Amino acid sequence: MKARFLLGALLLLVCSLTGCSDDENGNTPDVTPFSLEKTYYEVRLGPLSTHINITNGSGDISLAIANEAIIEAARVQNEGEDVFVSLYGKRKGNTTLTLTDNVTGDKETVEVKVTDCYLAYGIAGSNHPALASNLMLYLVNNEARDCYFFTMDYMEHQLNNTPLAKGTYEFFVRQEGEKKTPYLRLNYPADESGNLAQDAPMEAHDFALLFNDSQRVLDIIRTYLDVDWEELISNPMTRDLPPVDLTMKMTVPGTDYEITGALATAPIPEGILD
Questions:
Q1: Are 117 and 268 in contact (CB under 8 A)?
Q2: Tens digits of residue pLDDT in 212-268
Q3: Which domain holds residue 63?
Q4: Domain boundary among 87, 115, 143
Q5: Which stretch of DSSP H or E encloses residue 264?
Q6: Of the four listed, 40, 49, 191, 241, which is most buried by Cβ atoms within 10 Å?
Q7: Are 133 and 260 in a shared domain?
């Protein structure tokens, strides 16, 4: 009995010494290999960032940007210990970003494309023939003032990758008696019934704008689309080159058409913008 006791004590001592040796040598628990699900990302110009989520590896990531004039990248770890990389667009163009796991040594290189800034408008309810419910409009802050119209793929619960139609837009302010009303003019292809039709001729459609929180919505439009509201309001009918309530209603004067939606920063499907 005494021999068994001494043998057990000896084994315990050996295990303890082995554990201490591992700690002193700085050995770390096993981590999963580092890899990314995507190797291509798009980032818009402006204040909004695009995230690369880090879901494996050690989370200890270093970054190397091929062209720092195009993007800015930073590793972020939130309070929940989730790690991601924030990408900010500095100017339009393409570059690569190499992410290295400093523990596993694994590397991933992703291509990053910086596009024009843009703003989304998601339609929640509508009786308009072209701008129907669940349609998503993307207003692009470029010289052409491009506008894209996307429908939902209900099977995949996401936007279709190809736009239903493409047009242009502009904001202006119209003097109506003592009142100055902001308008959005959409130029899009429409058939004889007023429905969106890719091969139909372009038509201009003016929509008066109503807001639940006008100051906030106007600020968002100014920030993302560079709309000079002060200039438009001081000179009615001049045109600009093209938890808060971001609801924006659009009506067609002289008709009962009413469209209700909200501004959003949802990303446009990849591969659409230059």
A1: no
A2: 888 899 999 999 999 988 887 777 655 443 456 889 999 999 999 999 999 988 899
A3: 40-115
A4: 115
A5: strand 258-264
A6: 49
A7: yes
